[in-house]
Amino acid sequence: MEEVERLWNEVRELSLGNNSKVERLQTPPTALQFLRDFVNPNKPCIISNAINHWPALSLWAQAQHSYLSRSLSSSSVSLHLTPSGRADALAPLPSSPSSLCFASAHVQRTPFPDALRLIASPDHNPAVVAYAQQQNDCFRSEYSALAADCDPHIDWATEAFGGALPEAVNLWIGNQRSHTSFHKDHYENLYAVVSGEKHFILLPPTDVHRLYIRQYPAATYRYSSDTGEFDLELEEPIRYVPWCSVDPFPPPEKLHEEVSKFPLYFNGPKPFECTVKAGEILYLPSMWFHHVRQSSGDGGCTIAVNYWYDMQFDIKYAYFNFLQSIHYRSPSLLLPEKFSEETDSDPDCL
Ligand SMILES: O=C(O)CCC(=O)C(=O)O
């Protein structure tokens, strides 16, 4: 099955480049350039100087986020709470810590000024990590008071995608304690950072086997404000979620074990890595796997707005499904027998 590994290399040689770097444009492309050079080849890029005209860039960075607190003083927003900053991520099963489940955050409607305080001062309550995000078009609903601060869509992208407006526009307000685990979306994503920095690790859809997608039972954190503690509850009846098994930053004491469990990730071609700074947009093509960390800007928050456009379910999608259906067994020397037995019966998709 070396053909699969040859595919990873060929895609880099023919299209993506071998330096694991994301191309950077100094000015926004025309719709035609964007379509020809990035959308059609399903290739990411970072665009600088694309949102300089947004009032958000200066208003949202005001000291103590005074503008945001004022504008949203009477709004409630969906706040995601976890003990570790890892929501929609794998966590040890409460009843059997040697097994993993897919853990979602405790989501709580919270007055915006309280949410902002929790996010911007993470040291006040180190046992709780708060991330304001809801991937349901929240920018145009919960945060509609901020509509005039950003463009309603990215015009050159809208034109390149055929004229339809974004399916969802989402706002993300977090701090350096929140990580988003490896996953992919069936959207074309234009991800604009307004404050702070976002650090992305990206892998093309061709590298699907390197993420060891497996089925995990779904669970949800429940937070009690009385005790200040979290419980992690398995969903009843049990529901399985296919999810990426790889954490690219395992704790040092687990590094050796993780490398031997996931050799295709750790020993394969270097993933694409990039930092998107305030004022820049990342084009994250549909079906690319991404892992996201963040560093806070002035005022202790990282703030971003992303635009999800419908993707084309075309021949690339069909090829991806075919590739994923191939049962790829890495050379037995690379894969410990125990893990291979546990997981090889489970060739599922995200
Ligand atoms: O910013 C994040 O934490 C995650 C972003 C993401 O996963 C997305 O835009 O699809």
Automatic annotation (TrEMBL):
Signal sequence, start to end: none
One Pfam entry name: Cupin_8
JmjC domain: residues covered: 130-324
InterPro entries: Cupin_8 (IPR041667), JmjC_dom (IPR003347), RmlC-like_jellyroll (IPR014710)
Family from the record: Belongs to the JARID1 histone demethylase family.
PANTHER family: BIFUNCTIONAL PEPTIDASE AND (3S)-LYSYL HYDROXYLASE JMJD7 (PTHR12461:SF99), HYPOXIA-INDUCIBLE FACTOR 1 ALPHA INHIBITOR-RELATED (PTHR12461)
Name of the protein described by the UniProt record: Lysine-specific demethylase JMJ32
Organism, scientific name: Arachis duranensis (Wild peanut)
